[in-house]
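Example A, followed by Example B.
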Amino acid sequence: QLQLVESGGGLVQAGGSLRLSCTASRIIFSLNGARWYRQAPGKQRDLVAIITPGGGTNYADSVKGRFTISRDNAKNTVYLQMTNLQPEDTAVYYCNAQDIGLNMYWGQGTQVTVSS
């Protein structure tokens, strides 16, 4: 059973930065890519960023130019570097991966709170 463990969330002032990490219990990101989602209170879970097996990336319009997804294959870890954070970025952030059998895996979530 694949496990994803996230870290790096916290409280930051508007304009600040945070880096989230998601470490997998086995090789998965280099084979099948990864995604970061976020869910604000009372709202649906939205896709924030994608990194493909080949290293290609894509972002939600709301975070383009501010967030960067990256990967360290040797550490089985995916990162989400977040800069110029705004109060509307406040949410629980989740790491997601899918294996070759199309099984979906989620991390436990990490809270990001941005104060104005």
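Example B, a separate protein, is given below in the same form.
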Amino acid sequence: QVQLVEFGGGLVQDGGSLRLSCTASIDMSSFSTMGWHRQPPGKQRELVATITSGGVVNYADSVKGRFTISRDNAKNTVYLQMNRLKPDDTAVYYCNAGGARVGNYWGQGTQVTVSS
């Protein structure tokens, strides 16, 4: 069974930084796309950033210029570096990974809280 394990959430002040990590239990090259989504309190889950196996990245407009997604294939890990955090970034952040042959998977979620 494929597992995605997330680390790095927490409480940070407005303007601060956090780095999230997501480690897959299988070879990450099996996934065509990995990414991060988030669900703010009382709202629907939304896309934050994605990265393909070829390294193509995509960001939500709300995080462009502040967040950076990257991957370390040797560690089967995808990262989300979050800088200049705002209270509106408060959410549960979920790692996602998908590939045509292996299916689509979600992590358990990690809470990020930005205080004003």
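On Example B: The longest strand covers residues 91-99.
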